[in-house]
Amino acid sequence: MHPLKFLYALVPLAIVFDVVDATPTLVFAASALAVIPAAAEMGEATEQLAARTGPGIGGLVNVTFGNAPELIIAIFAMADGLHEVVKASLVGSVVGNSLLVLGASMLVGGWNRTSQRFPGTAARAQAGMLLLTVLALAFPSVLQLAGHGALPGPNVERLPVSPTIEGVSIAVAVILILTYGAGLLFSLKTHRDLFNPEHEDPGKATWSVRRSTLTLAGAAIVVAGMSDVLVGSIEQAAHDVGLSQFFVGAFVVAVVGNAAEHYVAVVAAARNKIDLSINIAIGSSTQIGLFVAPLLVLLSFFVGPSPMGIIFNGYELAALVAAGLAASAVVSGGESTWYEGLQLLALYAVIGVVFYAA
């Protein structure tokens, strides 16, 4: 039994709170916590299915389901026109994985060890892709500023964008998705050996394909239902507890959507599998930037009141670039220490303080 399954008890509780019009804070807290066990089961089912179907289909499964909880939450928020909450959660995921998860993994894994070594070539390739991703996401905002346009404020729901920005956002989204496809080809086929740590056993699947598929479907339904409840309460809940939607999107929704991955990465590092932790942390950040974010931009032309441009506010731009640079610098040497992990956590805390004050 998965250790987080007891949180499923909050699913009916969140529904009851929503139906009886309980305080938005209770509704938000119950629905957010109820997403966590479903996200964990989606991660476990994805791993089991990938082990049975091989690296090619396994890569496709990971693309589809790896960040599914956050994608589902973002779609519901986008349908409600909460574009800035969506973008804050995307930035929060990239920053959280690159700094919080990677930092916690290095701190826990290196605490009783002099250092932890990992394949430097694969780590540098992933970190380089992450850095290129955050820079690509930043450039449409540069275009907006160069044209004397305004960046969105941290406390607005959405910023109307010009036809030029819409066109550029579409083009950038397509380029990023194609780049992600090329990255899959690189990591799963042409350079598969670099991204296949020896401790990962391709024959470890204990679930049948049917069980894995049904688990994915069931967990996705739970996530979808709880996401609808969560998004419906986020605005008033944030106001009631004295937090901005911007902060909640970047530091609460983002952590909830990636809770399962966070747990797995830290446990792997504690078992001296720091290369797996790096694959999870940086790989998930890259997937958010190259696949989830551009997919949401394209979907926004069909879902919600208006298209969502790839325009971030100044805080988000700084956080994205800082996370990309810091993660790249830390993994470039092929080994890590607990102090490097602490430094990443400190940077994450600083970003959190600034986002809270924004």
Structure description:
By secondary structure, this protein is mostly helical. It has one domain: Up-down Bundle (A middle domain of Talin 1). The chain has 12 helices and 2 strands. The chain has helices spanning about 10-20, 25-65, 70-80, 85-110, 120-145, 165-190, 210-240, 245-255, 260-270, 275-300, 315-330, 340-355, and strands at about 115, 335. Strands 1-2 form a two-stranded antiparallel sheet. It is globular and about 50 Å long. It starts with 9 loop residues before the first helix and ends with a helix. Mean pLDDT is about 85; it is low at about 200-205.
Labels describing this entry:
two-stranded antiparallel ribbon, globular, 75% helix, 2 strands, single chain, mainly alpha, 358 residues, A middle domain of Talin 1
